[in-house]
Design goal:
The chain has about 280 residues and is mainly beta. It has two domains: about 25-160, Immunoglobulin-like (Sandwich), CATH 2.60.40; about 170-275, Immunoglobulin-like (Sandwich), CATH 2.60.40.10. The chain contains one helix and 21 strands. It has one helix at about 5-15, and strands spanning about 20, 25-30, 35, 40-50, 55-65, 70-75, 90, 95, 100-110, 120-130, 135, 145-150, 155-160, 170-175, 185-190, 195-205, 210-215, 220, 225-235, 250-255, 260-275. Strands 3, 5, 6, 8, 10 and 13 form a six-stranded mixed β-sheet that branches. It is elongated and about 65 Å long. It starts with a helix and ends with a strand.
Amino acid sequence: MLNRRKAGFWFSVILLLGSVIRAEALVQVEPSLVELDDRNRTASIKVTNAGSVSENFRVYLSFSDMDETGELVEKRPGDEDPSAIDFIRFMPRSMSLDPGEHQLVRLRARMPEGLEEGEYRAHIYFQNVPEAPEISESEEEDGFSTTISFSTRVGVPIMITRGSPPFTAGIDDISLSPGREPKVIFNISADKRTLRGVVAAALVCPESGETVKASAEDFLVVYSGARVRHTLALDELDEGLEVYRGWDLRITYNRYDRDEEGVGGLLAEEYIKVK
């Protein structure tokens, strides 16, 4: 029989030395984004236990804002936040899955009468519920082995559109950083719709109209109501930025068309003079 005090001592030692066998749950979800509207109010998410042990999962909703770095910050939604938590129904709220097993979580949006036109959002999370650490005797040199299950989670954004709010974006507060690794820094903002688009930069000669590609394309998501500070490397310029003094740097943000797997319509553009 393993002495409890001795087990606790060895558990602390094992944690300090880092010799812990991690048994993390690997959760796979499909699709990675749910979009609902006035006509399409239901969806399903396939949840798969891709780990090597059986797991219990908790399913819950949360609301997040996007900060100026583009990171999501979970928060309790206020009256002014475009939260969809109150009118999303889903089931089940928990599940037990063996390795390789999957289950569907079904969603339904019940938008209240009089809901204003716009986009409302939430995240649905799938989080494994870890069991208590197991400590057992073994034939290892120290006589004990430890297995710890760590809690992991995967979130799927849910975007619900009421009516037909426009896709509108803005670019402002642009600054150029020349040098050996030139870059342009600017803000991109979204109004009433979350934007998924491709941002890029090109140099335009004001006299001839000649255009030179200045950057690779960056995929950028901006949540509705957010203003994100973005840095774009001008790494397509073999001769640097200085040789283009007097030219205009054109920054564009084009909507990403998932159906066509490419760049769609222009969302925003702005210019800055290279000095």
